Amino acid sequence: MLCHIQSLCLVSPFLLIPSPHCLIPIHLCLTFSLFGRSVNNFLITGPKAYLTYTTSVALGAQSGIEECKFQFAWERWNCPENALQLSTHNRLRSGGHGWIWGGCSDNVEFGERISKLFVDSLEKGKDARALMNLHNNRAGRLAVRAALKRTCKCHGISGSCSVQTCWLQLADFREMGDYLKAKYDRALKIEMDKRQLRAGNSAESHWAPSEAFLPSAETELIFLEESPDYCTHNSSLGIYGTEGRECLQNSHNTSRWEQCSCGSLCTECGLQVEERRTEVISSCNCKFQWCCTVKCDQCRDIVKKYYCTRSPGKGSA
């Protein structure tokens, strides 16, 4: 399994956050200490430069974490809670999300500027890893652009569609998650351009991060090191191991990762697959009765679930 050091999970339509592979957990804090930024052609100074957008970014980050959990649910590293700790001093408000601009293209340029303001500014290092993270941030933003869809609405007598109004719209969040996960699975292991590093040696130098890598890698996710196998618990690296994880067996209409989950999570990690039977009570035989109720029976079913467990006689690693 590849190690993408700080690979990407989608956050809101525009923002990307790092997810740690073979590193200690990262704490993503959305209150910062920089003092002034020019955003959308007007200047915001002091704490307001960040607090103005913190709520929206935090909502997007939370959505990104949930998408990360979905995409990695059946892999050894499964986007655990402590890996992406999100904190903000603002209370999250529910308003302002779930809407689509009618007749106007989504403002990707503004979203990209906010992404750089919150995410790229986290990289203060002067090494290859910082450059890699900045590159992956940019690749994520390019992925959002590449997935824009042309949406049209017809106008005319009796739906003749003699006139159309068209605009660019962001892809569905799940589509973007699938797109980035596919890029993650085929990420490139890259050697840094040593000449560029000697010339700049800083993530904040005058040349762009993409200049340190091959031009062909501009839109791809990259990594510098191989990852551990994530089978064994290692608290110093924030790795929980796979003991106790649920896997799927004999499942139909599932993804490749789900079909292989018991082998990947259990067998290949030196664990056995244990079948557990659980009684589940659910509503069944529901009937509508006039007027106006629905009455159901309570049915009991035995559901089989499978977990990775250590063989008897083997101690914990």
TrEMBL record:
Family designation: Belongs to the Wnt family.
GO biological process: canonical Wnt signaling pathway; cell fate commitment; cell morphogenesis; endoderm development; establishment of animal organ orientation; neuron differentiation; polarity specification of anterior/posterior axis; polarity specification of proximal/distal axis
Encoding gene, per UniProt annotation: WNT8A
GO CC term (a single one): extracellular space
PANTHER family in the record: PROTEIN WNT-8A, WNT RELATED
Keyword annotations: Developmental protein, Disulfide bond, Extracellular matrix, Glycoprotein, Lipoprotein, Secreted, Signal, Wnt signaling pathway
Stored Pfam families: wnt
Any GO MF annotation of the entry: cytokine activity
Signal peptide (from-to): 1-22
Described purpose of this protein according to its UniProt entry: Ligand for members of the frizzled family of seven transmembrane receptors.
Organism: Cebus imitator
Compartments, record wording: Secreted, Extracellular space, Extracellular matrix
Protein name: Protein Wnt
Domain of life: Eukaryota
